Amino acid sequence: MPEDRSEANEEEVFEFDCPECGRHIVGEADRCPGCGTEFVIEEVPMAECPYCGEPCPLESDKCPSCGRSMADDGDELRQEFPRLVAEVKPLLIISKDYEVEVGEGRRLIDKAVQAGKQRDLATAVQMVKEARSSIKAALDERLVLEEGNLEKLVEVVSRSGVDPKEVSESLTALRTMREEGDVEGALQVAAKGRKAAERSSGKFLEANDLAESLSRLIDVCDQFYLDSREAKRMLNEARDAGDHGDWGMMGILARKGREQLMRSLPEATRGEMRKAKNQLLDAKADGKDVRTLVKVLKDAGVAMNRERYDQALELLGDFKDELKRL
């Protein structure tokens, strides 16, 4: 064992040759004992590679660890960022025009803006990419819902004795445009099909909207473990009434279920808001970046002050999700 330690110590001894006279020097030295040349150790400025995270000499063109080109990639990122922004902007406009919830995408864009202010271009680009994916997913989810609604409307219109041709054509066009990636066009034909169906199934559309609204509210309440059993019972009865063509009863039950849940939301929302504020303080004390949390909590507070407790609770759900990601 002593021999092993001796060998280990020998391996750790620093040895080098004097660059002036060539004398072999063992151990650290400020100057050469032979010619007197003073040794100056210069620290090489280092930067973190944005791709592999390993230290890389600042003046190096390539990362020694992953081999990625630092200069070229920086130029590539600077060119890629405006292209991504140009792709995301119309998606945001579409989501606003058709009232598609894209809160997650907007928060990712906020993070991209923050990274841009810190000149962290790699993170900014990554955040915009994730925002684009999130917004596209939300829009596609909406198209799936619209497709299902049109399928139901074809059935409803047929049962009312009216030719569902116009609604069927809208359904076919929606599917085609969705496959082609024409999101706005698909949403437009969905609205056209819905309008065509209103003439013969107006009560169904209104009742169906009420049922969908109740379903979303139940999902939010379940996230906070609020008692939604009675509302779920009413929703099931509403859907059953709809399956039997009783649109009036479907709407009545869905509205009652929502009203029943809404009565419990003010107190529950205030309690969750207090919890969220404490969690925000804890996260800040831990040195975490809480800027996105602050924005979400502020939006929730505005909604609560306007007595939009359902919206406030939904935002507090987003707060919980964001907190988990920190």
Structure description:
By secondary structure, the chain is mainly alpha-helical. Among the domains are: 70-202; 266-325. 72% of the residues lie in helices and 4% in strands. It has 11 helices and 4 strands, in the order αββββαααααααααα. The protein has helices at residues 2-12, 70-97, 103-117, 121-159, 165-180, 183-223, 229-243, 247-262, 265-285, 291-305, 309-325, and strands at 15-17, 24-26, 46-48, 55-57. The strands form 2 sheets. It has a two-stranded antiparallel sheet. The longest helix has 41 residues, at 183-223. It is elongated and about 105 Å long. Residues 1-12 and 41-45 have low confidence and may be disordered.
Summarize the helices and strands and which ones pair or pack:
Layout: H1 2-12, E1 15-17, E2 24-26, E3 46-48, E4 55-57, H2 70-97, H3 103-117, H4 121-159, H5 165-180, H6 183-223, H7 229-243, H8 247-262, H9 265-285, H10 291-305, H11 309-325
Antiparallel strand pairs: 1-2, 3-4
Helix pairs in contact: 2-4, 3-4, 4-5, 4-6, 5-6, 6-7, 6-8, 6-11, 7-8, 9-10, 9-11, 10-11
Report the strand count.
Answer: 4
Instruction: Indicate the radius of gyration in whole angstroms.
Output: 31 Å
Average residue pLDDT: 84
Strand percentage: under 5%
Sequence of secondary-structure elements: HEEEEHHHHHHHHHH
- Strand arrangement within the widest β-sheet reads 1-2
Percent of residues in helical segments? Answer: over 70%
Shape: elongated
Residue ranges: pLDDT <50 for 5 or more in a row?
A: 1-12, 41-45
Instruction: Profile the largest sheet.
Output: 2 strands, antiparallel
SS-based class? mainly alpha
Distance between the termini: 47 Å
